[in-house]
Amino acid sequence: MSRSYANPDVLSFYQQLPFNYFGDTNAAAAAIRDTNMIQYYPVLPPLLTKGIRVLDVGSGAGWFVNGVNYHYARHGSSASGVDFNAVAVKQAREIASHLGVQSTFVESDLFAFQTSEPFALVTSFGVLHHTDNCIAGLRHLLRDLVGEGGYAFIGLYHRYGRKPFLDYFDDLKKSGMGKEDLQREFMELRSGSGDKIHDLSWFYDQVLHPHETQHTLEEMLPVLHAEGMELVATSINRFEAFDSEEDLIEREKSYYALALQRLKDKIYFPGFFLFFARKTGRT
Question: pLDDT at residue 281 above 90?
Fold first, then answer.
């Protein structure tokens, strides 16, 4: 791309404390070793057992890349990551070393990143909505990084599902609640990992973040279609088969009420959605 939409405030924020960052890299490696978190995304394991090349955009502290390389290398799959934050990249490499896996992490602005050989799967978990142009970032991934017949798996904040959480903490901030009390309130919603730095990284990311945007599947579908992508599955309906994209668009509107109920029940609900699409070349 000729222009970057990376947000400098976001980079500075994550350089202080990256998201999903552990105070103990041994604990971070153990978390990947002991639990294959990728299995909770049901569309991914069938692909990863086929020996494919994967790129994670905005790879952060490397949980996904290192998870792929630890749990799926025996199937011939390999993953690499790209992230703008040197602090996160450093820990990602350290965790790879602890796990004994060969993971490549490139420190780069995602808008500047190019490849001579597109990937069979490109993932991005909660990253594009922290740039100044989420749609431009998505187009770059789909157009330049996903190979023909390849897949994209993208996670973004949801416009309906995110609003109750943001409103709740915005009201607490306006009431004068300080950082320590805000963190206690957040931890009542989300149980901790036992690593204080890791828990703090989640609180910073969710409650104190300097910049984010929220989106809908309805907004993303025209972008997918224009870039020759076909929607395969989405978390909006728990990755189940769907009759039509219009049904999904109707269904996602219920996320607001769901988020309100989760908040009332003191259950953590970040208002996040994912979509899985295949490049068919048809527009």
Answer: no
**Band of pLDDT at residue 1, cut at 50, 70 and 90:** low
Q: Which of 82, 75, 128, 139 minimizes the C-alpha distance to 107?
A: 82
> pLDDT category, 143, cuts 50, 70, 90?
very high
Beta carbons of 141 and 150 less than 8 angstroms apart: no
Mean pLDDT of the chain: 97
- Edge to edge, the sheet with strand 272-279 lists 104-107, 78-83, 53-57, 119-125, 146-157, 272-279, 229-234
Rounded distance between C-alpha atoms, residue 127 and residue 273, angstroms: 12
Give residue limits of the domains in the chain. 8-159+213-257+269-279
Nearest to 83 by CA among 100, 62, 108: 108
Tokens of 13: 């924020």
Question: Over the Cα atoms of the chain, what is R_g?
Answer: 18
pLDDT at position 5 over 90 = yes
Q: Which architecture, in CATH terms, is 8-159+213-257+269-279?
A: 3-Layer(aba) Sandwich (3.40)
